[in-house]
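User: quick one, sequence for these tokens?
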């Protein structure tokens, strides 16, 4: 495997990892983070979307950044790497408090369920989902760091589609090409007859 192919595969692996992490973050936002039971009230299941409303949009942004990495140039990849690190950190900050304390972030849901604004005594039981989201955030930040470190060596996404310039630095002139075609020559060839010149014997 050539060095270029190895770096292209490295980029593909990172893109797939970031796509998977974005999907995990979006999934976590729909899952129950805590089940809280206020005094003299029914249990209330609180989802990640309620505790951290920005979680699903952050996951969608991760998906979009993964797609952008496939076509981004060198400078754009550095910017995307920085954004990935920041997004991962934000996901961790939004979800880790609930992973450590199942009652964290549930006050709004409890107030809605009980009709009491302010502190209400509750019994909260957590689920693994906030921890899963926090781990996904850490991995997204690490993926962003990997992009910052490794992406300068990646081949440019659109390089293979760029048309090579004319041979010997010669600029293509549409008028000359039309005259050559009129004279019976092939304007795409190297030995095109040009106006005022005779073909090489």
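Assistant:
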């Amino acid at each position: 495997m050539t060095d270029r192919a190895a770096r292209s595969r490295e980029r593909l692996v990172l893109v797939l990892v970031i796509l998977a992490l974005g999907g995990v973050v979006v999934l976590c936002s729909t899952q129950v983070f805590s089940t809280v039971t206020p005094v003299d009230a029914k249990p209330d299941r609180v989802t990640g979307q309620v505790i951290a409303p920005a979680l699903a949009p952050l996951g969608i942004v991760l998906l979009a950044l993964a797609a952008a990495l496939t076509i981004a140039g060198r400078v754009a990849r550095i910017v995307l790497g920085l954004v990935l690190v920041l997004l991962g950190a934000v996901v961790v900050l939004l979800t880790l408090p609930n992973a450590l304390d199942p009652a964290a972030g549930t006050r709004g849901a409890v107030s809605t369920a009980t009709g009491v604004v302010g502190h209400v005594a509750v019994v909260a039981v957590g689920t693994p989902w906030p921890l899963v989201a926090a781990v996904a955030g850490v991995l997204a930040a690490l993926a962003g760091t990997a992009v910052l470190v490794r992406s300068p060596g990646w081949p440019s996404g659109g390089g293979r589609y760029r048309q090579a310039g004319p041979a010997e630095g010669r600029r293509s002139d549409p008028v000359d090409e039309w005259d050559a075609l009129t004279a019976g020559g092939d304007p795409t060839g190297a030995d095109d007859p040009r106006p005022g010149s005779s073909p090489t014997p």
